[in-house]
Each structure stands twice: as C-alpha cells, then as structure tokens.
Amino acid sequence: MSHKRELCCLFMLFMLATCFLPSLDDTNAQILLNFKSSLSNADALKNWNESISLCGWNDILCFNQTFHGLRLENMGLSGLINVVTLLELSNFNSFSVINNSFEGPMPAFKKLLSLRTLFLSNNKFSGDIPDDAFDGMGRLKRVFLAENGFTGHIPTSLANLPRLLDVNLHGNRFEGNIPEFQQRDFRVFNLSNNQLEGSIPESLSNEDPISFAGTFSERKNLDGGQMAGSHEKTQRKRNQMVLYMELSRL
To answer: What is the DSSP annotation of the chain?
Structure first.
C-alpha cells in the first residue's frame, strides 16, 4: 500500500513539474529577447514579445511551427551579434543579417556547430578572418560574406568544409592564393572583385571565369584561356545564379 502511495506522489510531482516547466518556444523566446537587447536600431523587431507565439515574430524562420533560424535582413541593424546568446538556442541552424550595418571583425560563429547557412553579405565587417574560423562546422552548406571589408587570406577551414555548396566572397579585399576547396560541385561560387594572386586551383578549374572577375591584379597570373570563356556561357551562369537565389529565398 505504501509503495502505491509513493508511486502516486511521484506521478503528481512529475505532472506539477511538467505544468510549470517553460516550453521550448518560451525558452527560445527569452534567449532571442536577450539577443535583441545587444542590437542597435532594432525597431523592426518591435513585435518580438512573449505575448505572441514565437513563430509569429517578424523574421523568425520556422518549419512546421518549430523555430530553426533568423532572417534579419534589410533592417539597418548594427551593434553586437552575441554568438554566446545564440549558442543557447535549440534547433538553430540558419542565420542571415544581409544588408545591415554591422561592423568590425567577423563574430566567432564556429561556436554554432549546427549552422547550415551563414549570410553576412552587404554589411561593414572588416579585418582578417582567422584561418580556423570555420573549424568544426561540418554541417555548413552556404556561406555568403560578399560586399564587406574582409582582408587577409581566405580561411582554409572554409575551403575544407565537406558539405559546402554555395560560397560568395565577392567584393572584399581578400589576398594571397586561393586555397584548394574540398567541394568540387558548387551551386554558387563567387570570388570576384578581391585582391587574390597566383593561379586558379585544380579543384576550381571548372568554375565559370566570371567567378574570378576583377580578382587577380591585372590578371597577370592567370592563363588567358581561363579568363576567356564565352559570353553566352557566362550570361547563362549569371542568370541561373540569380534564379537560384530568388527561388531559395521563397
């Protein structure tokens, strides 16, 4: 009899604990509000409040009503991207701050091992990216760092990502030789308008010449055949890239 009473008490305690434990959405909501507090010009996120379901917040990415990422684009945001706070989120795999005003060195995103997409294009980030900046990010498939002020060498840890499909680094000040990329079948690849030197690695020999346009100083280190390419092929590749980018953001 006492054994049954103990079991009954344990069951009641479990039910009470379940009722008072915060849901996963509630936990993620509080984490995101902490993240928002480190941003400047965050008026666009004014509907981020706990009276609204998390998947109803502006610029939250959800799938089947489950949170999985942030698309904070075209908002004039600046301030601190608090990676340590983002590390606390559950199911977090996509981060985009395209076309904002963030500046300074690239944050330490390599702490976010579950990321699959990282979009930082059209900001004011600057400085060298550490060579190990992408170490351990084995799930990362899409990296867009275009139109910033990044300098130094392209990180070998980026080139070594095993699942990388889309990479866009155009419009920075990367220098030195292009590393050998592990991936050889990119959907999007663009290193144009940088300050690279040397030759195109064998692993990238099939990429369209437009991917390297304006990259090599006076093109003096490139074979003329590599840069030639037909106008028709270049235009077709450009149109396919634009179409793919539009469809991928629907």
So the answer is: -HHHHHHHHHHHHHHHHHHHSPPHHHHHHHHHHHHHTTEESGGGGTT-STTS-GGGSTTEEEETTEEEEEE--SS--EE---HHHHTT-SS--EEE--SS--EESPP-GGG-TT--EEE--SSEEEEEPPTTTTTT-TT--EEE--SSEEEEPPPHHHHT-TT--EEE--SSEEEEEPPPPS----SEEE--SSEEES---GGGTTS-GGGGTTTBGGGTTS-HHHHH--HHHHHHHHHHHHHHHHHHT-
